[in-house]
Each structure stands twice: as structure tokens, then as C-alpha cells.
Amino acid sequence: MTDDEVLNEFRAAGALLEGHFKLSSGRHSGHYLQCARVLMNAARAERLAAALVERMPQDLVSAIGAVVSPAMGGIIFGHEIGRALGKDAMFVERPTGTFELRRGFALAPGQKVLMVEDVVTTGLSSREAIAAIESAGGSVIGMASLIDRSAGQAVFDMPYFALLKMDFPTFPADDLPPDLAEIPLSKPGSRNA
Fold first, then answer.
1. Is 125 marked as a binding-site residue?
2. Whether the Cβ atoms of residue 187 and residue 27 lie closer than 8 Å to each other
3. Is 121 known as a binding-site position?
4. Is 117 annotated for ligand binding?
5. How distant, in Å, are the alpha carbons of 43, 58, 102, 127 from that of 93?
6. Does some domain include residue 92?
7. How many Cα atoms occupy the beta-carbon half-sphere of 21 within 13 Å?
8. 78: which of 116, 133, 154, 186 fits an S-S bond (Cβ 3.0–4.6 Å)?
9. Which phi and psi angles does 48 have, rounded to 5°?
10. Any residues with CB less than 8 A from the CB of 178 and at least 6 apart, and which?
11. Which of 10, 77, 14, 89 is nearest to 50 (CA)?
12. Is the dihedral of CA 3, 145, 152, 112 positive or negative?
């Protein structure tokens, strides 16, 4: 799947938004890729996950024992990656502010895990999810996301694969370009930043 084909999936779902958005990272942007909306169609989510798995090296794919995603945004895409890999998919959540496995999910000591996100902007929540997986006994051997919008700033100590890299500029709240500052703010994500 080419970058244009991925973007066409977002366009077809009405999930490529323009305006003034506050991202989960707290930064502001004139563009927003609404991953939940593009993934609401199960056939589309399956296509996108299969396309990402096809880009991953076979030695990594064959080593993966489970898929774990952070709630809320990563759950659907993580599940579809699990389906494409033929592996169980679990998620970590923040009931008290720190990611942890719950709901009877468990990893065997040293179990090799692919951590899957919907979108990566700064990589902070990804690193927190990786720490939780490792605290639960898993060994994170790779990371994947539907979208990497970090502009190369999110770096991990493991192989990282994204289906689409988008370099939409982001800005701190106190340093917005005048044209962006004039547009009413919207917060379409799942977390308050």
C-alpha cells in the first residue's frame, strides 16, 4: 500500500481533518488524522494492518509472541495487527494514571511483544506503554503504528515501523502561528492534555 493509498483511506473515511487541533501531546496542529474514524470500518482496518505487517521483516514477524497496545487509541489497530500476525492482542490501560495490564491479560516471562499504537507524535505514551509491558514480564522487540507524525523525533531502542509518516507541523500552545491562532480550537483525541 502506497502513502497515497493510505491517505485515500483516511479521506474516504472523512478522517483527514484541517483546522486547529490540540493533540494528545498538548501540542497544536492545523491537521489531524482521526485514526479512530479510519479504523471504524473493519475491512479498512484489516487492510491497513495487513499492509503494515507486509512491511515488517519476516524474522521479526516470526519472533512476535503477542501484540500489546495502549488504550484507548491503539486497541483497534493493535487487534487488527494481532489478526494479521495470527497472535493474541492485549492492551494496557491507565486506571490510576500509569499504564498496566488488567482484565486478566498476562504475558509469560520474556514473551516477545510487538507494541502497537495508532499514532505517534512525541513517543511519550509509547515509551510508557513499553515500560508497562516490560514490568509485566514481556520483552518488547518491535514497535508499530498506523501513523508516525513525529517528524523523526520519536526514537525507540527497537525497530519501529509506521504505515505512514506525516510531517504536519506542531506548535506549543504559547507559540502558535497567527493564522492557526485565529481558528477555534478543537480537541478530537481521546485524552485530555
1. yes
2. no
3. yes
4. yes
5. 26, 29, 7, 13
6. yes
7. 20
8. 116
9. -65, -45
10. none
11. 77
12. negative
pTM here?
A: 0.83
Cell representation of residue 112: 516477545
For the stretch 56-70, pLDDT in tens is 999 999 999 999 999
Domain count, the chain: 1
The dihedral region occupied by 19, where left means phi > 0, alpha psi between -120 and 50, and beta the remainder, is: left
The answer to the question of residue 111 being in a domain is yes
The one-letter amino acid code at 33 reads L
Q: Is 34 within a domain?
A: no
Q: Which tens digits make up the pLDDT trace of 10-63? A: 989 989 888 999 887 788 989 888 888 999 999 999 999 999 999 999 999 999
Is residue 122 a known part of a binding site?
yes
Report helix, strand or coil for 150. Answer: coil
In a domain, 24, yes or no: no
Q: What is the CATH number of the domain that holds 116?
A: 3.40.50.2020
Q: Annotation-wise, does 118 bind a ligand? A: yes
